[in-house]
Prior knowledge:
Elements: H1 4-23, H2 26-32, E1 36-37, H3 38-45, H4 49-61, E2 65-67, E3 73-76, H5 80-96, H6 98-102, H7 104-109, H8 122-136, H9 138-145, E4 152-156, H10 162-170, E5 175-180, H11 183-195, E6 202-206, E7 223-227, H12 236-249, E8 255-261, H13 276-285, H14 293-302, E9 305-312, E10 318-325
Parallel strand pairs: 4-5, 4-7, 5-6, 7-8
Antiparallel strand pairs: 1-3, 2-3, 8-10, 9-10
S-adenosylmethionine (SAM) binds near residues 158, 179, 180 and 208.
Amino acid sequence: MVNESTRIFNSAIGASAISASFELGLLDALNESDPFDLEKFCEERSLSHWAIGGIMQVLYRFDIVKLDAERKIANKGPEFDQVFADKGYFMWLVRGYGNLLHNLAGIVEDGNCDTNGIGRDGKFIAMSGRDYGGRYVDEHFTEVMNEEPFTVAADLGCGSAERLMGLARARPDFRGVGVEVNKGAVDLARRSIKQAGLEDRVQVVHFDVKNLVFQPEFEEVEVLFCFFMGHDLWPRPNCLNAFKSIRQAFPNLKRFLFSDTYRSDFPAPGDPPIFTLGFEFTHDMMGQYIPNIPEWEDLFDEAGWDLKGRHDLSIAYSSIFDLRPRNNGNGQS
Ligand SMILES: C[S@@+](CC[C@H](N)C(=O)[O-])C[C@H]1O[C@@H](n2cnc3c(N)ncnc32)[C@H](O)[C@@H]1O
């Protein structure tokens, strides 16, 4: 039995090895071809066989792969499928937040504990989010969206607008509008929409959800959704205003599918599920408060939203809250 200190040390190396083998294409290659010729893989990409062998050796230690003595042929190990499914989480931590992990003490000492100061890498956060989102979120999203008919939807904090484009591909009559504050993300989303030939049905507006007001594009929106940005709207008074103004900005809204990862309040000491510790730690380092479920429910109620149901995602402590605008008796619905 190894002691906890040893386990933590070895795990740090394991996390880097998983992230790197995902980024290098090793995990996908082994997933497609088992057994897998490591020597050929390295030759084709001009990679050092010695270095790749070293990475694979770490994965071997964790039972993720099996390796021959010369490190030329790899097979899937008993832990492969789970690690393959979770690989986005490792890239999110090691690559997305690598600067924070590496410079933690200095960042704290220099008072750089905010979203810009920690130097997170948005490209890898987006890439990894696409991987674990595709595996652990999309199926739930489709299921909840399809519970009721709709033709026009909007996505708050749409990022790359991938969800809206997915809906447009799946439904020929669908029209959608994304709202996004980050200019880089807006440009990326608009380029992707154009490339996909969907610009007549999917648009993105450059807006801060904190100051949302009615736009002509919002007139016909029946379903609104918002994934993984709600906590960015806190502290509470700001978030409460935003949730109130959302009701005013979308006059014909029937549903608001609000989804986020909430605070676990997982008892310490102990191992919370994968992602939870990383999510809460990185947000602490950015000075970003993560509300728990009672805090969210209290806010929905005060902002005039009725909670019709809650659908848990396959990411720990993450749900879709199915909200309905409450008719408050003064003409607003
Ligand atoms: C974690 S990403 C999630 C992206 C996408 N919803 C998804 O699920 O993949 C959060 C997104 O919300 C955007 N965002 C954050 N605060 C915002 C605000 N106040 N108004 C509009 N967009 C915002 C960010 O720029 C980013 O693109």
